[in-house]
Amino acid sequence: MPNYLIGDVQGCDAALQRLLHKIDFSPSRDTLYLLGDLVNRGPDSLAVLRRLRALEGAAQCLLGNHDLHLLAVAHGVRPPSRHDTLGAVLQAHDRADLLHWLRQRPLALQVQGWLLVHAGVLPQWTAAQALALANEVSAVLASPEGPRWLQQMYGNQPERWSNGLQGAERWRVIVNALTRLRFCTPEGRMEFASKDGSAAPPAGYLPWFEVPGRQTAGTSIAFGHWSTLGLLQRPDLLALDTGCVWGGCLSAARLPADASGLAAQLIAVECPQEQKPGR
Questions:
Q1: pTM (2 d.p.)
Q2: What share of the chain has pLDDT > 90, as a percent?
Q3: C-beta separation of 125 from 43 below 8 A
Q4: DSSP class of residue 110?
Q5: Contacts of 87 by beta carbon, 8 Å cutoff, 6+ apart
């Protein structure tokens, strides 16, 4: 029963279909783990959501920042961006069902020893803590209070984690780390302005996975979110946002069937966009 990790789809349903054909995906045999940003900026977010929802347990999907943005727009918390391509979802006859399904998606998962997140993990968190904190926010988001919590989700403060944080501030830090993080200080102070690759960090900051002594250093982590970083494969690190929506590739990684130490097998399809939306 192969497990496949898939990077940011961002509404590129045609590319997703080609990728599933290339890996000979069978929902009765295989499981997909999508690393968030299922929607937005690409041409057919509605088809992506319908496809993945119909696969039920064969497609396990994380929430990314664009997915949360869709929920916030749908609930009137945020205005649409001029670069959004979410109109078909918002006007769909099955909108309510799709949005309800999306709200139930997790912020982190663990499969075959890999910790899966959309963006990153703060250096002070262990893998077990990251999963527990993700589940804490997921429970709030999936509850009847979820739409009201979306009103408090946005903001860059607090900029670092503290075990004493409570309520909306606590959940905001968790969401920011798991869905927006690229750079942070060794103390875990997050920076959100820079979208450059890992070779050009802001002064005083590091890519989150390069922080010395991070608590997840012994854990294999897969993530997306960082298209300017591109594909990065190490024994304990796998970055899979290969910029499909920007005319790059949509990438998948087939995890080895056992703990043999073999590297994940990478599969990709090109994703040319006739009109490249603004970043």
A1: 0.95
A2: 92
A3: no
A4: E
A5: none
